[in-house]
Amino acid sequence: xxxxxxxxxxxxxxxxxxxxxxxxxxxxxxxxxxxxxxxxxxxxxxxxxxxxxxxxxxxxxxxxxxxxxxxxxxxxxxxxxxxxxx
Length: 86
Hints:
By secondary structure, this protein is of the alpha+beta class. It has helices at residues 56-59, 68-78; strands at 10-16, 21-27, 34-36, 42-48.
């Protein structure tokens, strides 16, 4: 690896505002805002729109999308193809 071309890896707090959850991890992300963490140290904070705490897949609140209406609309618009003859 060439020296001096890689971004600095540092401890960063990611904050999910939707779920009111924060977690400390290492990242190359940079921020001008800081937050005091539970250990008394100050870390840069990056606000994220969604995390595993608020994502529907991880929280179990995902909804099944009804695609039958889309398929029927496609078939009406473009017609159903005839089954293959042998």
